Amino acid sequence: MCDPVGMIGLALSVGMQAANYAAQQDMVSKQNEANQAWLAYQRMKAREETARQETLRRQADASRMETLNKLSGPEQKAAQTDEQGRLEQDLSKTAGLPSDEQLAGDKLLTSGGALDMTNASPEIAQDYASQLTAASRAARERIKNLATIQSYGGSQFGLGTRANEWLTRANTDIGFAGDMRRGSLVAYGAEKGVEPLKYQMGAGAGSAAGIAQGAAGMAGKALGGALGGGIGSF
Amino acid sequence: MGGKGSAPSNNEMVQFEREQADEARRKENERQARLTKGRAQISQIFHGDPVTTPQEAKLSLSSLSGFAPGAPTADGTRIIGTSKEGDTFKRNYMPEHGYFAGEQQGIGDTGWSYLSGYEHDDPGGGPAYLVYDPQGNFRGVGANWEQATQGLEGATYMKDTPTGKYTNEPFDQAFYDKYKNAYTNYYTPKVQQQAHDAISDAIYGFARAGLRGSTQQNTEITKLEGQRADELANVGNQADQAVRQQREAIATEEQKALGQLQSTEDPEVAANQAMASRTDQLTAAPQLTPLGDLFKPLVIGGIGAYNAYNDASYYNSGLRANSPNRSSGQTTG
């Protein structure tokens, strides 16, 4: 004959096991959701950081490319030609060289000039005028060469000055972008350090399982005894 | 029967970590904003703060550069464009469109910006192209580039145009020209005076030697004239180099201010340093040195005159006159 107590105990045991399994499944499900949420968060932060880094990298690269273009051969040659022209004009003006070579002699031949040639013989006056014109032409040629030399380096807008200015500008832009990128990476490190939620079984679940196991054991023993007695009675 | 359900064991810790991550990102954004503001302040101090006025201009889609209007990437992330000027982006909520969108600031002269992609924060959002004019005003949106820019080619917008005036005067070319002119105006009269004196001495010397109006006089005078032109050109060259040094000094001061900005991340401190440096440069005096003797004095006929005096003196005293070939009448110089 079956022992009702045993049956109840068996049912209790099975029920308890089922509840335990359900709790475990619930935990697994919730943990999976937490992991998915964490992955989504990490992916979002990674995408944002990648975009920030790329934007800043492009800023730095744009500045670098602009400087490279400015230092290219054609640009440098054009800059040198412009600077040579500017210096020639500027230095000639400072030197007091007239634009018309003939005027150089005429200015000093007039009465009251530094060298009054009004009473000189025509031959002497002509000799002076031609020598002065030659001297002016030679001076202008020397100034032109001086302007050429300075345009390659030490003048206001010479190649040396120009290259230094563009490289400094690019260095500043690149350094600035690099500083931003480093700072952003530090903040991203904090974002990467966020952990996923970790689920564990509920506080009463373990003790209920233990009680269920104990009750099931007692029921099992009672059932076994009842069965054995029943079998023996047959 | 089954006891309590599962619960996260590290909920508070994860919350704290998220707060810390958000705080770190917020602080970094603030730091970058301070750096950007500080850099703009330093640029205004050294390069001027131009006064602009809005003027009507026409939009030109063909002038767009640095962008690649294409499909979103495979995982649906945002395609962020960057103009040639390297402008930065910030996120901004667009309530009229119902999703977070990106916005580009500080667009270049004819550059456009756009942002395509969709926001992960809005599961219902789809790909969208947003178009902004060079002033940063929103002008269009669409599912693709053509839709977003429809009707915008040639449309007008108000462009901030420089007026040539500044609220903060820059170190401009007029500033450096003033320095250069002061330099040349200081030295040029000295050179002219020395040249004039040398030419006058030469003329008088030739006159004393009885060679006034000779071709030899012409040769010496024209040599001195050529030398005068060379010395004046040299003054101009030195003035130009002095200006170059001044430019470099000002550029160095600007770099120091920028370096201090990055060190301190306090734009106000760097701006004060920049103002102090600017004041120093504005009051810096040029280093002027004495010219020295540029033109060697011509000793013309001096020995001859002395010898003539001696001859007369010896003759008068009955002594033998000096031989005629004793450096009499020779020109030196």
Q: Classify the secondary structure makeup of chain A into a structural class.
A: mainly alpha
- How many beta-strand segments of chain A? 1
Percent helix of chain B: 40-55%
- Which structural category fits the helices and strands of chain B? alpha+beta
Strand-residue proportion of chain B: 15-25%
Query: Can you list the strand order of the major beta sheet of chain B?
Result: 3-6-7-8
Q: Note the overall shape of chain A.
A: rod-shaped
Whole-angstrom Rg of chain B: 39 Å
| Helix segment tally of chain B | 6
Terminal Cα span of chain A = 10 Å
- Low-confidence parts of chain B: 63-127, 302-306, 319-333
**Main β-sheet of chain B: number of strands, strand sense, barrel status?**
4 strands, antiparallel
As residue ranges, the low-confidence spans of chain A are: 100-106, 205-209, 227-234
SS element count, helices of chain A: 6
Rg on CA atoms of chain A, Å: 50 Å
Overall pLDDT metric of chain B? 68
Protein described:
The complex is a heterodimer of chains A (234) and B (333). Chain A is an all-alpha fold. Chain A is 82% helix and 1% strand. The longest helix of chain A has 67 residues, at 4-70. Chain B is of the alpha+beta class and 333 residues long. Chain B has six helices and nine strands. Chain B has helices at residues 11-47, 145-148, 173-208, 215-264, 267-283, 302-317; strands spanning 7-8, 49-58, 79-80, 89-94, 99-104, 113-116, 129-132, 138-142, 156-168. In chain B, helix 3 (173-208) runs antiparallel to helix 4 (215-264) and helix 4 packs antiparallel against helix 5. Residues 63-127, 302-306 and 319-333 of chain B have low confidence and may be disordered. The interface between A and B is large, with 96 and 75 residues.
